[in-house]
Design goal:
The chain has about 150 residues and is α+β, with helices and mostly antiparallel strands. It is built from four helices and five strands. The chain folds into two domains: about 5-60; about 75-145. The protein is about 45% helix and about 15% strand. The strands form two sheets. The protein has a three-stranded antiparallel β-sheet, with no helix packed on it. The protein has a two-stranded antiparallel sheet with strand order 4-5. Strand 1 (about 5-10) and strand 2 (about 15-20) form a beta hairpin.
């Protein structure tokens, strides 16, 4: 069965990929798509793309852009996506450190409490102090993580 891929540009310049299998009636495909409540598009908004010009790794999907031929990762947007993912990890680490701090407090371990307080400050400062602008490719950016996470 054949597969056709189409790029749909959103108003904010992000994109979506539509996969159509077989030889369907494109007017029906469009009607079904619009019935899902997604933004209004026309058949002219569907830009065909070959799978070879698509990205397999969807980690930076919200940073994908279409240049008219292939899908690329917009690095400024990718840095935002990655920082948001790091914040999720950071938030969990902050929650975990709450318990550690309480245990140290119960045993009056002031050295442990100081270590945890320092870590918590690093975690809170991470969005400011961990510079993602130095990572030039999506592959390297995806691997970037502060040592304290």
């Amino acid at each position: 069965m054949t597969e056709k891929l189409f790029v749909i540009k959103n108003a904010d310049n992000t994109i979506r990929i539509m996969c159509v299998v077989g030889e369907p009636d494109m007017d029906k495909v469009l009607r079904d798509y619009l019935a899902t409540g997604k933004p209004v598009i026309t058949l002219n908004d569907l830009k065909p793309i070959d799978r070879i010009n698509c990205l397999d790794d969807k980690y930076f999907r919200d940073a994908w852009r279409y240049d008219g031929q292939k899908i690329l990762v917009d690095m400024p947007s990718a840095r935002i996506v990655h920082m948001n993912n790091l914040k999720v990890l950071r938030d969990q680490k902050l929650k975990d450190s709450d318990i550690e701090y309480l245990k140290a407090d119960e045993t009056n371990d002031s050295q442990k409490k100081q270590q945890i307080s320092s870590l918590r400050q690093q975690l809170r400062d991470m969005p400011i102090t961990f510079d993602l602008s130095i990572y030039a490719t999506p592959e390297i950016l995806k691997m970037a993580m502060p040592e304290y996470l």
